[in-house]
Each structure stands twice: as C-alpha cells, then as structure tokens.
Amino acid sequence: MSRSSTHPLHRAAACLVAAAATLFAIGVAKAQPAAPALVSTGKLTYGTAATFAPFEYTVDGKLTGFDIDFIEAIARKLTLEPAPLNIEFRGLIPALQGRRVDIINSAMYINPARSEQVDFVPYMKIGQQMVVRRGNPLAIRGRDDLCGRKVAVTLGGIQETYARQDAERCKTAGRPDLTVMTFPTAQDSALSVRQGRADAYYESTAGVAKIVLERSDVFEAVGEVFEFGTQIGIAVRKGDTVMARLIAEAIAKVVADGTYKQLMQKYNLPPEGSLF
C-alpha cells in the first residue's frame, strides 16, 4: 500500500485529523490575546496636555512630570516606545476617538460625562484646593467666600466645572456674582492670581503641593480640600478592552517593582492618593 493511499477509511481518518487540527488552531487563536491596533507600529502614542504640573508640564521645551515618567515605565513593560502628542486638553478625547493617539495620558479626571466617551484605567485619586496670594489679603477661607470674587481655572478642566457650580450657588443664593476666568493652563491661572487679576484659583492637591513648595513667597493654600477621592486615569477608546487590559497589567508591574511609589515621592504627591 502506497503512502498516498486513497482507501475510504484512510480518507476519513485524514479528514478527522484535519478537522481536529483546525479546531485546535481556532482554540489557540481565541486563547491568545488580540494585539492592540497601534497608531504607529512599535510605539505607544499618547495624547497629553502638558499644562498640569506636577503631572505633565514642560521644562525648557521638554516634557516632564509624573505622568511622563509613569508612561515611560508602562511602555517599557509593553516593550513599546512612548510617543507623546502634546495638544490642548479639550482636544484629547477627539484625538483618541479619531485614532490620532492610542491612549490619553494626561491626569484626566474620571467623571460620568467622560466615561460615556472613553474607558478609563484608574491609577490615582486626587482632590482640589484653592490658592491665593501670600498673606491672603482678601481673607478667603473657603469656597463660600468667593461670591463677588474672581476665580481662575483651566479651560475645560474639572476646576472649571467646580467653579461654575460655585457661581451658580452664589446666583441661587442671591449673593454677588462669582466671576469665572478661564485660562489655557494652570500656570496662566497662577499668574493671574499673582498679578492680582484673579483673587484665587482652583488647583489639584498635587499641584498645590508643588506650587506652595516652590513659591511659598508668592502663594498659599486656603480652605479645606474638596472633592478628594476623585480618580484620575489613562483613557482608552470606548470598548477597547484589549488596550485597557494591557495598560492595567503594565501598571500592576510598575507598582510591583516599586516605580509607582518612587515616582509619587519624586513629584511630592500625597501618599494617600495612591490606589495601590
């Protein structure tokens, strides 16, 4: 009998073997995680608005901050090269949805409105506080003292949301109007307070720690921390479970090797903000 026998039993056996091999291949394919569709092969392209120290900002034209170091560590775990796209904050979600970037890495606050547009992998929690000129010349003790005052915030940031809520409360209570002044960056908001154009500005607890540490001769924090517990996260496209899982797994490794804690200490971030 030749090795290429056409006996019916042999043909049937061959068919069964081929079918089994096909089913096995399908099973293996299903078991293997799908690779993410990257904007650029071998790179983790991320959108960031580098105006939010200490998370992302520029020094002599170079990106720096917690998020910048953090994403570099994450990319290493994924054997990818980090590739930043520094754009205006309000353009970040459209850039992600339009597939100009793979993720958003910009200390983005997780809220219901954004969660309808993107999915998040949380990595820290944060609060808010007010910053005024050193000596607090207007005796601002809290948000209730802001009616009739001017508050500076970053355009499109969560601080603008809180300030407009405060403005509405002033209006509802029949008190003097709270004027909300919007600026492109937190640095611009700080400058407006320093120059006396605004009476106070809202800043994250992390940003407050940085500005008060570096410029205690100019600024001071006042009032209680509010909205503490708000989470920030890396954003992925809605429904992109593959990318979300890979980012979450990489973060777990960055936490496990101690890098996450080291970066929090490096940028003077309050340890109670850690999610891990």
CATH architectural arrangement of the largest domain: 3-Layer(aba) Sandwich
Outline, from the CA principal axes? globular
Q: Note the main sheet.
A: 8 strands, mixed
Side-by-side strand order of the widest sheet: 4-1-5-10-6-9-7-8
Write out the CATH superfamily name of the largest domain.
Answer: Periplasmic binding protein-like II
Give a structural overview.
- The chain has 276 residues and is of the alpha/beta class.
- The chain has two domains: 128 residues, D-Maltodextrin-Binding Protein, domain 2, CATH 3.40.190.10; 102 residues, D-Maltodextrin-Binding Protein, domain 2, CATH 3.40.190.10.
- Helices cover 38% and strands 27% of the residues.
- It is built from nine helices and ten strands.
- An eight-stranded mixed beta sheet has the order 4-1-5-10-6-9-7-8, with helices on both faces.
- Helix 5 links the parallel strand 7 and strand 8.
- The longest helix is centred in the N-terminal third of the chain and has 24 residues.
- The chain is globular and about 55 Å long.
- The chain starts with 7 loop residues before the first helix and ends in a 10-residue tail after the last helix.
- The N terminus is likely disordered.
Helices and strands in order, then pairings?
Elements: H1 8-31, E1 43-48, E2 57-59, E3 62-64, H2 66-77, E4 81-86, H3 92-97, E5 103-109, H4 112-115, E6 118-133, E7 150-154, H5 158-172, E8 179-183, H6 186-194, E9 200-204, H7 205-214, E10 219-237, H8 241-256, H9 259-266
Parallel strand pairs: 1-4, 1-5, 7-8, 7-9
Antiparallel strand pairs: 2-3, 5-10, 6-9, 6-10
Helix pairs in contact: 2-8, 2-9
